[in-house]
Amino acid sequence: MPDLLQIGGLTEVMKARLESAFTIRQLDAFEPEKITHVMTNGHDGIDPELMASLTNLKLISSNGVGYDAIDADTAARRGIYVTHTPNVLNAEVATTAVLLMLACYRELLRDDAYVRSGTWDTEGNPPLTRSADNQTVGILGLGRIGHEIAKKLAPWNAKILYHSRTKKDVTYTYYDNLTAMALDCDVLICITPGGPSTHKIVNKEVLEALGPNGTLINVSRGSVVDETALIEALQSGALGWAGLDVFEAEPNVPQALRDLSNTVLLPHVGSATVETRAAMGALTVDNLLQHLKDATVISPVPECAHL
Ligand code: A2R
């Protein structure tokens, strides 16, 4: 059986399916020239030096949709497939975005703490919150997940604006400039890929354009937002609220962000439900098994689609 190098975690279901076709090797015990397949995830990716040492590598199957931790251009040049798990997590990540937005608007954490601490009993009702209805929501990255977020916001009667590299055939309002969109929206939801082209595109200027009544939601990658500028804007009141599922140096979250009461913070759980992780794991394994069978894959990243 061919050697599969495992990077990151694996569920029992995935392991059982993979063991029927591969010998699974761990990072501390493998022979580089014997590895033909790698299984990893969006967070761990694969170290470029490690990838270069795997001279017989044919496929890197990543469990997750974002693949900025994998050098897909180099892989494609070497004729190595990179696959990921698009679509099966769209609804879940969109739910996480909406959840964060609602939690910010309705001060879910503050009011939960209000009840638990007994303050309701001693001080009466808490201050009013803001309605999440009828807001103008700017989506940064109207791709597979971005579209799903727009659809999920319909019951809140959101007006949808979007910024992406290209204009889409949709009724939502397109902005070719991110700062201009931030000026016009109440909520900015980030759902682009990570990587050099989106590195800190949500900068001081964009955050200040979003403004004191604005809410930033990030369910993409921590690298998309300038975290230092974000902290300063939240501290000074230049930005109102932030709901964050992703951070620059996960799992390290700056104390300053944790100290702020106008943030809702999640440990990168956008797709982390039993159901969605099972679907992602199944697709990750399906790509590996299909490649073994007929040298094709189900869901290559765009850089490798021509292989
Ligand atoms: O290529 P376009 O015009 O459709 O724009 C894509 C947009 N995008 C950008 N927008 C502005 N500036 C950029 N430099 C830039 N680069 C990409 O992000 C597209 O509208 C969206 C990405 O959509 P999909 O490729 O369909 O990705 P999906 O499945 O929605 O996932 C997005 C990301 C993942 O890469 C993970 O980082 C995260 O969500 O879970």
Number of domains: 2
The ordered H/E elements are EHEEHEHEHHHEHEEHEHEHEHEH
**Number of DSSP strands?**
12
CATH architecture of the largest domain: 3-Layer(aba) Sandwich
Structural shape: elongated
Largest sheet: 7 strands, parallel
Share of helix among residues?
Answer: 25-40%
CATH topology of the largest domain: Rossmann fold
Q: Which structural category do the helix and sheet elements fall into?
A: alpha/beta
Query: In percent terms, what proportion of residues is strand?
Result: 15-25%
Sequence of strands across the biggest β-sheet: 8-7-6-9-10-11-12
DSSP summary: helix tally: 12
CA-atom Rg in angstroms: 21 Å
CATH superfamily assignment of the largest domain? NAD(P)-binding Rossmann-like Domain
**How far is the N terminus from the C terminus?**
24 Å
Mean of pLDDT: 98
GO molecular function, one term: glyoxylate reductase (NADPH) activity
Keywords: NAD, NADP, Oxidoreductase, Pyruvate
Protein name: Glyoxylate/hydroxypyruvate reductase B
Family: Belongs to the D-isomer specific 2-hydroxyacid dehydrogenase family.
What does this structure look like?
This protein has 307 residues and is α/β, with parallel strands linked by helices. 36% of the residues lie in helices and 16% in strands. Helix 1 (12-19) packs parallel to helix 12 (274-294), helix 4 packs across helix 7 (144-152) and helix 8 (178-184) packs parallel to helix 9. The relative contact order is 0.15. Bound molecules: ligand A2R. Residues 65-66, 86, 93, 141-146, 163-166, 191-194, 197-198, 220-221, 270 line the site of ligand A2R.
